[in-house]
Amino acid sequence: MKKKKKPQVPFRLNMLFFVVFLLFSALILRLGVVQIVYGEHYRKEVERTENVTVSTPVPRGKIYDRYHRVIVDNIPLNAITYTRSQTTKPEETLEIARKLAQYIEKPTDKITERDMKDYWILTRPKKAKAKIPKSEREKLQKKWKEEELSNKEIDKKLYELTLERITEEDLKEIKNEELEVLAIKRELDSGYALTPQIVKNQGVTNDEYAVVSEHLEELPGVSTTTDWERRYVYGNTFRSVLGSITSSEEGLPRERLDYFLARDYSRNDRVGKSYLEAQYEDVLHGQKAKVKNITDKAGNVIETKEIYKGQRGKDVVLTIDIELQQRVEKIIEEELRIAKQGGGRELLDRAFVVMMNPKTGEILSMAGKLYTRDENGKVVLRDYALGTMTSAYAMGSAVKGATVLTGMQTGVIQPGTVLRDEPLYIKGTPVKKSYETMGPINELTALQRSSNVYMFKIAMAIGGATYRPHGSLPIDPEAFTIMRRYFSQFGLGVKTGIDLPNEIIGWPGNSKLPGHLLDLAIGQFDMYTPLQMAQYVSTIANGGYRMKPQIVKEIREPNSDDKDGTQLGPVIRGFEPVVLNRVDMKTEYIKRVQEGFRRVMQTPRGTAGAYFAGKPYRPAGKTGTAEAFYDGPMRSKFMTPTLNLTLVGYAPYDDPEIAFSVVVPWAYQSERNRYPINNKIGAKILDAYFELKQQRMKEGPTEQLSAPTDSTLSTAEENEQ
């Protein structure tokens, strides 16, 4: 019988089993080491519970004028900041404040009584506790528990009661050296968890910056960095339109808090709070730097990692010529000072100028000045450029171009229609007349010599009235609507569409009396803004296109390689000219008014001929004088009629490149006190514009702009006819 062979495991298989055995042994050994030797360390690592991403602000974008001169810039500042953790206690911030007070000086002027009481409680706990005796405390706690208040609510009520019982004598215990500690602690406590809060950024000396940097290890949460401050390069020039930003203490405006928080803003971010700074906040604010704070289970920051460096805000290029703006403001100031020297001009305190390109709507200058006195009686001329669009006045005869065109389009007159200029005697109304009786005149002479009666007769015809001396004048009230509808096509009585907030539409009169319709025809009933007047005359100048006034020309990317602020980044968005509407009037009619305006300024009998005839830039325009009741800051003392002076125009008359309005409310109170400040300002601002143009032509080529056409009409913009 044969023996059975025992099966043999191959040698290689044995080796495989042996290697696997060694690997498992090593793995078990490693797990043992991790669990026994490093277990506590890795347990703490696992307890890291949160990665918190925090956004930190970056400098705002710059604002330039049309020739790329910096108007608004950022100044770098040394800054000391503090970032508190989610578990920081008041006692800890107090200790940090005490240490910081040794290294920096902090003004104490912003400390409130509540700040001092909180500090007194924190630093004098035994005295604070004694404010509510133990027996009273126990009774109150029992009472509030019966009212089902939580322990937290009870503690809050006890704290508030303690605050009420702190006396002035108690607060006198706080020494002067403690006040600086309190001022610093106030800043440390005002921030939000894990968000850097500025402790000091104004007047941080190099020594302060250096010594704090050296002691950061003993100042948890404190850091030294670079902050920024807005710098308005040209001082008060154009300042009210540029607007302003909030401080880090103000932070986000309460009325727009939800809007900003939804867009990743922090509560203490600085944002634009008025006009250009606010209107273009989304552009100027920039992309915030992002930092990831890795915290442990207790909320303490273990590690900070930068995710994104951020990018400063985009740059805004304005249509404004800042050099022209400076000259215009100086001219207004000089003329106001001269005018105030004469008698009967006590109420004169302001003047406005708007200069714009009638072909594009670009605003080149937008200026206003208020003549006031400071607390010492010294004359101060304040910037009031905003008044060009936020205040309205009776403009007088400057609107007669719109009246003539309305008469032509409604068919009550034709080019060349002759009407007799004569005093009008209407029952129940003071005599209506021009400053002189002119006899038979056509519309050109009526504009040239500023006939009131010619305009009255246009209005009467639109209202379906027949004039009979000393008789009544029944007028269809619909005439008010008809005239205002045509006036609105020029921008009178409607918003101009400018890219700034808070523009008003003016003030329409609310009467339907026949005499007031006649007043409407000569600009002495409805009130308009200086900006509306500039848009109106631009519409006549360019042949009937109402252009949207624009204050911003371009938005550009910031240039990281820019060293001196003159090298701008690429254009992100350019703002093209926008035609809001083409007036519903024949070109032939507009040309007749243009000729009438030319005669106003370039002929001896024109009402502005003495100031503009012979000027090389060949202007055209219309003067205005309006009787108006004073409505200024001294109206409680003066309830008296005054005279507003206005002037609108453009140049050159045959190829206009600049249009303007000058408005001087309450210029004088009687004819014997007359000073032609409107014409003086008008002539000087046009001189300044063309002088600068000549100067720049020598330096390099100037912009060439074509007139608008029907093909450029914008359907996106409102048509307020």
From TrEMBL:
<keyword id="KW-0573">Peptidoglycan synthesis</keyword>
<dbReference type="GO" id="GO:0071555">
    <property type="term" value="P:cell wall organization"/>
</dbReference>
<feature type="domain" description="Penicillin-binding protein dimerisation">
    <location>
        <begin position="56"/>
        <end position="305"/>
    </location>
</feature>
<dbReference type="GO" id="GO:0071972">
    <property type="term" value="F:peptidoglycan L,D-transpeptidase activity"/>
</dbReference>
<keyword id="KW-0472">Membrane</keyword>
<dbReference type="InterPro" id="IPR050515">
    <property type="entry name" value="Beta-lactam/transpept"/>
</dbReference>
<dbReference type="GO" id="GO:0005886">
    <property type="term" value="C:plasma membrane"/>
</dbReference>
<feature type="domain" description="Penicillin-binding protein transpeptidase">
    <location>
        <begin position="352"/>
        <end position="686"/>
    </location>
</feature>
<comment type="similarity">
    <text>Belongs to the transpeptidase family.</text>
</comment>
<dbReference type="Pfam" id="PF03717">
    <property type="entry name" value="PBP_dimer"/>
</dbReference>
<dbReference type="InterPro" id="IPR001460">
    <property type="entry name" value="PCN-bd_Tpept"/>
</dbReference>
<dbReference type="GO" id="GO:0009252">
    <property type="term" value="P:peptidoglycan biosynthetic process"/>
</dbReference>
<dbReference type="GO" id="GO:0008658">
    <property type="term" value="F:penicillin binding"/>
</dbReference>
<dbReference type="InterPro" id="IPR036138">
    <property type="entry name" value="PBP_dimer_sf"/>
</dbReference>
<dbReference type="InterPro" id="IPR012338">
    <property type="entry name" value="Beta-lactam/transpept-like"/>
</dbReference>
<dbReference type="GO" id="GO:0008360">
    <property type="term" value="P:regulation of cell shape"/>
</dbReference>
<keyword id="KW-0812">Transmembrane</keyword>
<feature type="compositionally biased region" description="Polar residues">
    <location>
        <begin position="703"/>
        <end position="721"/>
    </location>
</feature>
<dbReference type="Pfam" id="PF00905">
    <property type="entry name" value="Transpeptidase"/>
</dbReference>
<keyword id="KW-0961">Cell wall biogenesis/degradation</keyword>
<dbReference type="InterPro" id="IPR005311">
    <property type="entry name" value="PBP_dimer"/>
</dbReference>
<keyword id="KW-0133">Cell shape</keyword>
<keyword id="KW-1133">Transmembrane helix</keyword>
<feature type="region of interest" description="Disordered">
    <location>
        <begin position="697"/>
        <end position="721"/>
    </location>
</feature>
<protein>
    <submittedName>
        <fullName>Cell elongation-specific peptidoglycan D,D-transpeptidase</fullName>
    </submittedName>
</protein>
<keyword id="KW-1003">Cell membrane</keyword>
